[in-house]
Amino acid sequence: MKEKLVRFSITITEELLKELDEKVIKKGYSSRSEFIRDIIREMIVEDRWQSDDEVIGVLTVIYDHHQRELTQKMIDIQHSKYVNIMCTTHVHLDHHNCLETIIIRGKPSEIQNIAIQIGGLKGVKFAKLTKTAKVEI
Ligand code: NI
């Protein structure tokens, strides 16, 4: 089902318009409209992360393969009853380093809690949480 599109005009300074157009080109958007639609969706996702709604986080972790019991500790943390681990992907980067992405569904506070716990483990060299959510519009 195709959603109805509406057209509206906005008033901004020439300077701001120049900035907007530069960003549209730099980020590879086909139009100002597409860029602005994505900005609004990004704000919706940010709001969800400030709420108690269900969101999705992608935790990227790089850790020392040789750190004793680290993988078991990471798995124990993921077995939290408050979140749903949707999938994990493991890549053996080199002899010492593993990279893992963990896709987590749950409440923002619980996902952040897991990200902090895993990020703080001995042997974890890098941990970054990417915040996203289902946006139906
Ligand atoms: Ni590995």
Automatic annotation (TrEMBL):
InterPro entries from the entry? Acetolactate_synth/TF_NikR_C, ACT-like_dom_sf, Arc_rbn_hlx_hlx, CopG, CopG/NikR_regulator, Ni_resp_reg_NikR, Ribbon_hlx_hlx, TF_NikR_Ni-bd_C
Q: Where is the Ribbon-helix-helix protein CopG domain?
A: 6-42
Entry annotated with the keyword Ligase: no
Show the Pfam families listed in the entry: NikR_C, RHH_1
Query: Which co-factors does it depend on?
Result: Ni(2+)
Entry note: cofactor: Binds 1 nickel ion per subunit.
Keywords per UniProt: DNA-binding, Metal-binding, Nickel, Transcription, Transcription regulation
Using the record's annotation, list all stretches that form the Transcription factor NikR nickel binding C-terminal domain: 56-131
The keyword Transcription belongs to this UniProt entry's keyword annotation: yes
Q: Which family does it belong to?
A: Belongs to the transcriptional regulatory CopG/NikR family.
Q: What does this protein do?
A: Transcriptional regulator.
| Protein name stated in the entry | Putative nickel-responsive regulator
Lineage at the top is: Bacteria, Pseudomonadati, Aquificota, Aquificia, Aquificales
Q: Per UniProt, what is the name of the gene that codes for the protein in this document?
A: nikR
